[in-house]
Amino acid sequence: MRCSTFLFFLGVLVLPACDQAPLPEAEKAPPFVRTARVGAAAAADLGLSGTVRARVESPLAFQVGGRIVRRAVDAGEQVTAGQLLFQLDTHDLEQGVRAAEADLAAAETALTTAVADLARARQLRERSFTSEQATERFELARREAQTRREAAAARLVQARNALGYARLQAPAAGVLVDVAGEPGQVVGVGQRVALLAQAGERELEVHFPAGVAPPAEGLALLDGDMSLPLVLRETAGAVEPQGRTLRARYTVLGARNELVLGAVLRARFHVEQQTEGGFVVPLAALNERGEGARVWRVRDGIVEAVPVDVQRIDGELAQVRGVLATGDSVVALGTHLLTEGMKVRELAR
After folding, report:
1. What is the DSSP secondary-structure string of 97-143?
2. What domains are defined for the chain?
3. N-terminal to C-terminal alpha carbon distance within the chain
């Protein structure tokens, strides 16, 4: 009896607990994000780095193939016009000259014989001892011997030129930026063995972001608050596929050989706004997920992705073009954690 009474009261206590609904979980608060205002793009000074190059850079190579037996210069050395740089083995080339001389001597002997035969044939023809056709055959033989003699003389000139090409000389004064040929190396015709930066004007090679047209003028910034004017000489015809940059070369006015080749100089350019609808956003606001650049705009506490085209990057700012408006709020930090339609809270600026 006591046991039954105990079980009854236990059931009365358990039933209300089973019927009670679980408590709802507390909703997580939206995360905080740091935002920045979208600004309007305008004309500005663009700072870039450039490399000092020579106005004329000549790749040097042999006009004949062979084995290098002498290298008379080193990289970085100043050379004068006509100075010997490399020497090839001339044994085979000298044999070619002697063979060409022998062919020319044989052709001259044959021509002398043909001329004498033609003269005798004409004398016999005058006395009617031979026919006109026989005289014509001797004339044809003389012409053929003359042609062979001219061909042999041309081959001798080519052989002597080839012997002279075994000496590679500097075409102009300048600095050897690179020397690749080594004694004992067998090189082919046209294979580069050195690179000569000719003396004279110096240029600054600058790579501009895609979408920015290189301006006609600029300034090269030197140490000690000194600067030299730049004038645009040429612009590449296409954007480089890897870096997506446009190469431009500027003539450095007032500078010749005093600028060190290969040195990196800072340059400043005044770039006008190239397209309407340009905006400025922090560089950290750009987000790339394999579908092109985008920024995350915050509206009523919800983020949305806005595709943009990057016009240029200058320091910690980026000029973009897209469906934005001046004063829009965009996420400036932690964009890799955002998803479309996500709720966020803006940190006070």
Report:
1. HHHHHHHHHHHHHHHHHHHHHHHHHHHHHHTTSS-HHHHHHHHHHHH
2. 32-43+275-346 (2.40.420.20), 47-55+201-271 (2.40.30.170), 57-89+169-197 (2.40.50.100), 91-165 (1.10.287)
3. 75
130 to 123, 144, 273: CA distances (angstroms)? 9, 21, 94
Tokens of 133: 């056709």
Q: 253 by DSSP, 3-state: which?
A: coil
The residue type found at 125 is R
**What is residue 12's predicted lDDT score, i.e. its pLDDT?**
47
- What are the two backbone dihedrals, phi and then psi, of residue 52, each rounded to the nearest 5 degrees? -75, 125
Q: How far apart are CA 113 and CA 101, in angstroms?
A: 19
Q: Mean pLDDT in runs of 10 for the chain (349 residues)?
A: 48 48 61 86 76 93 96 93 96 95 96 92 85 89 94 96 95 93 95 93 88 87 85 90 87 82 89 65 85 89 89 77 87 86 82
Pairing mode of beta strands 44-54, 167-169: unpaired
Parallel, antiparallel, or unpaired: how do β-strands 345-346 and 32-33 relate? parallel
CA angle, 52 as apex, 50 and 58 as ends, to 5°?
130
Q: What is the pLDDT of residue 217?
A: 92
- CB-based contacts of 167, cutoff 8 Å, min separation 6: 84, 86, 87, 88
Query: Which are the contacts of 136, defined by CB distance < 8 A and separation ≥ 6?
Result: none
Q: In Å, what is the CA distance from 274 to each residue of 210, 241, 312? A: 11, 21, 11
Calpha distance 256→56 (Å, rounded): 12
Question: What pLDDT, on the 0 to 100 scale, is given for residue 15?
Answer: 46
Cβ within 8 Å of residue 116, ≥6 positions away: none
Alpha carbons 190 and 182: distance in angstroms, whole number: 16
Per-position DSSP letters for 197-210, written without gaps between them: EESS-EEEEEEEET
The single-letter DSSP state of residue 326 is T
